[in-house]
């Protein structure tokens, strides 16, 4: 089993930057980070078909953790559930945490454990732990 | 009433034209309370729909709605993409074996499915200053055969005095009052064009 991360924002620069930030860390080589901010032509916005294209091209051993920041980015990670089949739904997980902090923590955690609950817990901790 | 795939495609062609004609107006409405892109976003969606229809020539109402849904989902970029996309995806399902729409009630029920799609996707309620404030009264009036142009216009205008509770406009709170909602305006165009085809 492997976990890939789908990063969704209105801005490609946001998710490109986040991907860069995550890949600076010593994460598992099996984990792929997809920067899906912006529209297909690089404009401001988001596009659900960029998410579903990746899921549809994947094998049944690959799980996806989806992260989003605002507005249509959030609508589109949810929208993807209406476009994929039941088997794919089992492998597509919406992680409701702040995009940057949550994805960063999750990316590191997937290298340590396969347990989805642990991954989500670590991603959510980033909210609770901020500003001591 | 006798709406076949021909009339439905005529409706959506009129809608596409109306969106393109009102592109700048829709973006202007979006400027004080959003990011000023509603017109451009919607125009990209309807142009993609027209291209898709020209290429695939959908044979029935359901396939036509699906073409609009996918064009909105993949080309709009902003929140109206998944919202219109969800509406027309629900309407795609609601018309699966429908050859002809023969009554106001039937048409209203199909639109009601679309409304449900928007509500579910956007987690929106009435009076949130969104497209729902047009869709909801329109659907109800259509179901009983009483929808007219003025009713659509009134529903759209009613969003002017509302405080936005969804989307980027919601950050503005009271400052959103005095501006007509852009999504309500594009939805009003959708239903005005429908009335032109129905009558």
TrEMBL record, chain A:
Gene name per UniProt: dhaM
Gene Ontology MF: a single term: phosphoenolpyruvate-glycerone phosphotransferase activity
SUPFAM superfamilies, per database record: PTS system fructose IIA component-like
PTS EIIA type-4 domain mapped to chain residues: 2-132
Subunit structure: Homodimer. The dihydroxyacetone kinase complex is composed of a homodimer of DhaM, a homodimer of DhaK and the subunit DhaL.
Keywords in alphabetical order: Kinase, Transferase
Superkingdom of this protein's organism: Bacteria
Protein name, UniProt field: phosphoenolpyruvate--glycerone phosphotransferase
TrEMBL record, chain B:
InterPro entries named in the record: DhaK_L_YcgS, DhaL_dom, DhaL_dom_sf, Dihydroxyacetone_Kinase
SUPFAM superfamilies to which the protein is assigned, alphabetical: DhaL-like
Keyword annotations from UniProtKB, A to Z: Kinase, Transferase
EC number per UniProt: 2.7.1.121
UniProt entry tagged with the keyword Transferase: yes
Domain of life, per lineage: Bacteria
Gene3D superfamilies membership: 1.25.40.340
Domain DhaL: 6-196
A GO term, aspect molecular function: phosphoenolpyruvate-glycerone phosphotransferase activity
Family matches, as Pfam families: Dak2
Tagged with keyword Transferase: yes
Top EC class for this record: transferase
Name of the protein in its database record: Dihydroxyacetone kinase subunit DhaL
Species of provenance: Weissella sagaensis
